[in-house]
Every structure is written in structure tokens, then in C-alpha cells.
Amino acid sequence: MSHEWKIKSIIIILIIFIMIAGGIPLYKHRHFNITIVAGPGVTKVVKLSEYCKSLKGTMADTNVFILEGKKEGGKALIMANTHSNEPASLLTALIFVENAIVEKGTLIIIPQFNNSGGRNTRPGDGYPLYFEIQTDWGKKKFRMGNREASPLDQWPDPDVYIHYPDRQLLSFIDIRNTNRTWPGRPDGPLMERVCYAAMEIMRSEKVDIAIDLHGAETMFPVTNCIVAPEKSMRIATLTSLTVKAMEGFENHVEPSPEGFRGLSHREIGDYSDTMPFLLEAPVPFLDQPTGPKTMDLLLNGKDPFLLSLSKQGKLFVPYDETGWPMRKRVGQHCSVILELFRQFSRKFSDKAIIVRNVPRYAEVVKNGVGHYYHDPKKADKKRIYYN
Ligand SMILES: [Zn+2]
Fold it and tell me: 26 alpha carbon to ligand 1 midpoint, in Å?
């Protein structure tokens, strides 16, 4: 072998080694499952593919937890991890799955709505692959996901994404964003099928209200709020005013823009009888001008650059040395959901949704998020799900 070939062979071996060493953690992350203990209120667990057969066997299929109440009433759908880099949504949904007891009505909960996005990451932004929540029995490990579905599951992206059915031109990347692919179709790209399956749940189960949980940058005005279209506006406004007055955290209502297509708070309302609500809580981790994207920043939201921007009045949320701990964000989501149920039940008493054993803001802030998760080692094996 010539000298030149020896060097070339070494370089090729090195490249293969780097690819394998870099790929193994990504492979493990994609196949890591979160452990969920179905609480006393869960009566049935089905797959999303039951509502859209072509999801079966894909990474986009995901668990749907159903909590049927003792008495018939209204029905609510809660979706989390539509964007898996906004994890307060998932943590809130799991508090409901592991604890809620439904007295009246039915809850349908999809904790990892964009399951493919939950198995994706953003190495260019230095995202951590996992984060851990302290519980009363040890640490509970979660995957940190991405805003968009993995290209391994839906590829290639078009040059321009043409929204179905409105034909509005959207950014190419949004074809993998499950908050741009509503209302979807059963034979469209994978993310359209995910949204279509949820639409089918709402239409076939006659769901009254749908809540899509999110988080947003502190430098973005649409945060600490409920986004609602015209049909949901009255209940959203009463909810926002009540939590602000009674529980002391910031909240306001943003109207869902009619001309911006593909979003849950727009299309669910237009393509079903369900009233949609999209909830936002701050995620300092997502702001651009922060320090390293660490697990600590994700969980505590403390950042010196944001603190200095806050002093210059550049943030849309109150911000001080205490940052934005996860317990505040999850607590807000819990309270806003419970208040939406209460306001809906006041207006439609025959379709009331009465849920107990879910903490409100002050309790989550006091006890921490992890306090509400159950030890899988002590749980009945038949009640454990992996997602
Ligand atoms: Zn979001």
C-alpha cells in the first residue's frame, strides 16, 4: 500500500469511527421510552393509530390515555408535546394521567402528540438529549425532543409547504410541525395523519373542548396566555381573568388569527364542533440570546443575558434572579386547564367536566412537579406504559 493510501485509509476509518460514536447516543435517544404509571382514573389506553390506520407501525403512533368519569358529562382532549422542546406540556399531561380522578365527563390525554418530534433533537443548538425531574422516590428521566418531527420518519421536505386544504404557502420545515399540519388528511404526509387522527377522535367521540399545551420564548409576546378562536373566546376570557385574580400569575387571551392556517386553535374550531384552546407558558431555554442550552436552563430558566434584557424591558414576562422554574410553568398549565373545565361546566351544566386530585398552581409551586409522579417500581406492572 502506498503512503498516500495509508493516509486515506486512516482518514476513512476515523470518519467511520466518528459517525458511529456520534450516532450511538442519537440512536439510544430515539429508542428511549418514558415510563408512565397510569393513575386510578385511567380506564382505557389505546393507540392514536386506532383513529388513523396508516399511523400503525410508524414512530408517529403514540399512546392515548382515556379517563372515563363515574357520571356522563362533557369530554375534553389534552395534547402535550406538540412541540417536544416545550416539556412543561408533557410534565403537565403526566400529572393528569398519573393522578386525575374524573367525577363527571371524560378526559382523553395524548402526552406525546408529536411522538416523532419527541425522538428528534437539535444538535446544532446543543440541545441536551435528556432531562431529569426530582421526585419523592428518585429521579425520573425524560427525553428532550424537538419542535419538528424527525426526518427519519418524514422525508424529504418540500421547497415550500402547501397547507392542506387551504393551499396557504408555509415554510418548508412546517410540514414536520404538528402545529401547522391541522386538520390533516388520512393519506397525507405523516404529520398530517397525526393531526387527522386527533380530528377523528374529536369528531367520533364528540369532544367538547381540546387543549393544546405549549411554551414560548420570553421575548415573544404570545406567552403566558390562552390562544382562542371566536367560538372559545368567552370561556378563555373568563378563565384568564379568574386565574389572574385568584391565583396571582400573569395570563391573557390572544385571538386566533383567521388568516394563519394549520394551527390547532384555528383548524380544530373550523373543522369540528370542538372548542380549541392553546396554552402558552414561558420557556427561557428557547430564547435566542441565552448562555449554553443546558438541562439546568431548561428546568430553572435562569439566565444572566435574559436578566439583563429584562432590565431593559425587552421581555414579555416578569423575570428576575429566580428565573422561570419548571414548577411555575407546570403549575400555570394545571390551573388554566382546571379553570377551563370549571368555566365550561358553568356554561354547559349538562356537559360538566369535573376532575379532582389534580394540583393547582400554588400546590405545584410548593411541592414541585416530581411530587406528583408515581414510582414505577411500586406500581402494578399492568398499569405501566412506555412512550
Ligand atoms: Zn409550541
Answer: 23
Q: Which residues surround ligand 1, an ion (CB under 5 A)?
A: 83, 86, 214
- Ligand 1 centroid to Cα of residue 177, in Å, is 9
| DSSP calls for 179-191 | TTS-S--TTS-HH
What is the rounded average pLDDT of the residues 358-368? Answer: 98
* Annotation: CATH topology of 32-386: Aminopeptidase (3.40.630)
For residue 195 the three cell numbers come to 393531526
Distance 91 CA to ligand 1 centre (A): 14
- Retrieve residue 73's grid coordinates: 358529562
Please give the distance, rounded to the nearest whole angstrom, from the Cα atom of residue 280 to the centre of ligand 1.
8
What is the distance in angstroms between the CA of the first residue and the CA of the last residue of the chain?
A: 51
Cell 436578566 locates to 307
Is residue 177 scored above 90 in pLDDT? yes
What does the chain come to in residues? 387
DSSP output for 273-332: SPEEEEEEEE-GGG-SS-S---HHHHHH---HHHHHHHHTT--SS---TT---HHHHHHH
Q: How many Cα atoms are found within 13 Å in the side-chain-facing hemisphere of 180?
A: 20
| CB of 242 closer than 8 Å to CB of 340 | no
- What pLDDT does 123 receive? 86
Cα(294) to centroid of ligand 1, in Å? 19
- Span 338-348, mean pLDDT? 98
The Cα 217–Cα 189 span in angstroms is: 28
Using the mean position of ligand 1's atoms as its centre, give its distance from the Cα of residue 86 in Å: 6
Span from the CA of 31 to the centroid of ligand 1 (angstroms): 23
User: Mean per-residue pLDDT for 279-287?
Assistant: 97
CB atoms within 10 A of CB 381: 6
Burial of 250 (0-12, 13-18, 19+ CB in 10 A): middle
Ligand 1 centroid – CA 161 distance (Å)? 19
Q: Compute the mean pLDDT over every residue in the chain, rounded to the nearest whole number.
A: 97
Measure 85 CA to ligand 1 centroid, in angstroms. 8
Give the span between the Cα atoms of 10 and 18, in whole angstroms.
Answer: 12
